[in-house]
């Protein structure tokens, strides 16, 4: 099936002048290369830069980045700002010009600050989207490079493999079992097999979907590999033509849904109209856009708006619904005191700054929901190769049953076949190990002349399989440096073959070629092996070469090559091979087997030929052991995960003994396994076969889920995630291949590798640019920091709102001789504190560093989110305590040392009778301003004392100043609040006419005493929380799973331990969504 847009395609590029003389499917690869000034060795970097300036970036048009106008409108058209604008209108209507002017100034300032901050955040997110965009492998200057897809240009030689998203329209010149999924482009649901050699004629009417020698941008590779020349990029691609035709057709209006008969009723139109109105209203209120936390805070703002309306009615009712303008202003101010005006914008800025910090720590966030999820992760399921290990495979051991064992040591450069020392022993690894234990060791001999060994037919065949059943290439550059291209495992094997100067596929000159490839059956994570069929040009015979997992290779072998020749393979042979494999795997080596067979059948078309017909009756040749050293940072990172209450599981395709050895080296499982009871140890380290044989009920009954899962297949990863979910765990899963996509989507946080497939990246929430396990820990630490900061500024904002609301409502009791309430805080003071004094500290709280205990606490409960019981209590306690102190300051000035007279008409203007009220109001305003600023500093750590946030510090009297200065933005925000209070208090006209207060003198004594009382109250509450936590919150400190394992009997503390009595309850939690996305 082909879409109309494709049917109308022309034979030439109709969008812009094409560098090709005619459509690419009508040209040979050589003609395309000539027209694009390129060749199979690729463009030079200078050529690529020049072409980039001519053809532009390889991107579809999407609106050109952040829109300043859209962001500006967003600052005005939102629920919070409209409340302020409504207040402004009210002040103009009642002709309260000073209040109106102040509100206008506040509105303008809020819009300006919000616009500047959010525009900067959008620019940051735009740059991060560029970083997270797909990458392409290209050949430039004979070197394979990974570049951002947007930088690819016509003429680039592109390498494609399974899982890649094709980065541009490409004329193929090399294909091997290559198929692509073009459903996005053509609507065809089945993969399309490609053929590079086809050249169509001009008189053939060939639709886009039938051009088998082309690969199209945005299609995905489902099978095989290929190379080709990019001939169209960006909007000049076929998908770009469709994008141009669809541009501007997106609509936010719901369409009426017709009945089965196709008739559209009036009711359908009504439902569509109602849905459109609902969507628009929810979008305006922020209830259906953004992350879950943003939506939750938008709901909170809506609730607070409703409370604000109620409070305004209470104020009017307390003054008998007087139409006095000052009463109305007071009602408006009381309502505004409950509106957290900066809440959503601070959240947006905090999250964008968090993603920017993550980039510096090699983590790219693709899904903003992950920022909220990372801090809740309880279990990490990680791959081994390239993540926990370095991904630099070195072939250290090779065992050939017909000859002996080779060992390579002292390797510094994994790509150099000339680096290291080779030794040979005629003994098998099992025999050598046995002799070593019996003090009858036979020292291997050093290999000085490799040709003496390559003359041995059995070893020659082994090297030939290693070299030909291999997609990697190794070559020495003009500067003498060795370089390699390909998969790390295949590079390691190819380097081993090159050590013996083994060269079976020679240079490009046809006369020098010894072998030609006929077919390839690529490695698959299900069959765990790879086969290629080559033809020997000198003799004309065909040979199948195969490598893969030892068990899978043995299953395909019927003979084995021994010192006596090829003999039928027996169970004893298999036992001996597996025993030797166990010895090599026990050294932490990844062990593969090599085999071959003569191919005598005639196959006219290899495409679609069943691989099971080829991969049988093989001859076993030997084993090769590759060492992938753990990253130096893996061990400390795993330990930090354990200290943070996070369990690490290693899911790998390696052999069980190899996986166990590496897991012990990096601390995933204890080295002293003998301390663990056997029934526990059996569950700690399992193979995928053992795990998959268990039913879900049997998995749930395991005392502990596997920490090491060997020979892992993609479906096993999905089962593991589901098993963890049933135990109430919150799971992060890593993956890099196409088949990892289901497990990445099933996990709560999917983590893709930067070098992985585009399909895996598309399914993931975050991408690691360095493929490093330590970066996962960085992401979790950053996620916890962001989550903590969200709690801190939300707590700061809402505690202030509670304080102001209580102060203003209780202040209704202060009535003058006319019966009208006297404001303890003027409306302008309220707005100043909400939007100016506390606004900047809120931004500062969103950017502060992590607390010292951020990675020693257990993961937070995602069900409760920011609004934990502790946070809710803090809001109430801090808000009420500050309100009590503010009211006390007002009472002390008026009734303690004042005239006990609330004056007349003191809400609107200053007169002789209002001096006491104006001084009391100024004192209250100063106290509240100081409290708001001091509370921001106290929020740096929600439990530790502000004066002792670093428990190990010896600077008992100055540490608080160091900690305050460390957070620069917050520090200067607090200083700004302190500085601005003096002109507000003492500048004539500004103080009495605008803020309705006057300068104070002896009242500073009250301010200082109440500041001291504020600190005493807050510190006392924090001390009470610390005492409570030590005595009652047993889970407040993270448990170390490895220590629990080594303790032997303390498994109730282990995060994934399950007893049969709790299976039903946790399964029920899992069904209710605990640990689910």
UniProtKB/TrEMBL annotation:
A Gene Ontology cellular-component term: plasma membrane
Topology in the lipid bilayer: Multi-pass membrane protein
Keyword Glycosyltransferase found: no
Record bears the keyword Acetylation: no
GO BP annotations listed: potassium ion transport
Alphabetical UniProt keywords: ATP-binding, Cell membrane, Ion transport, Magnesium, Membrane, Metal-binding, Nucleotide-binding, Potassium, Potassium transport, Sodium, Sodium transport, Translocase, Transmembrane, Transmembrane helix, Transport
Molecular-function annotations in GO: ATP binding; ATP hydrolysis activity; metal ion binding; P-type sodium transporter activity
Region Disordered, annotated ranges: 1-26
Biased composition (Polar residues): 1-17
Entry EC number(s): 7.2.2.3
Swiss-Prot/TrEMBL catalytic activity: Na(+)(in) + ATP + H2O = Na(+)(out) + ADP + phosphate + H(+); K(+)(in) + ATP + H2O = K(+)(out) + ADP + phosphate + H(+)
Cellular localisation: Cell membrane
Reported cofactor(s): Mg(2+)
Domain Cation-transporting P-type ATPase N-terminal: 23-96
Transmembrane residue ranges: 76-94, 100-121, 300-321, 327-351, 793-814, 830-850, 871-898, 918-940, 969-989, 1001-1021
Leader peptide range in chain numbering: none
UniProt enzyme class: translocase
SMART domains recorded: Cation_ATPase_N
Superkingdom of the source species: Eukaryota
Family: Belongs to the cation transport ATPase (P-type) (TC 3.A.3) family. Type IID subfamily.
Entry-linked NCBIfam families: ATPase-IID_K-Na, ATPase_P-type
Protein name: P-type Na(+) transporter
Organism of this sequence: Tulasnella calospora MUT 4182
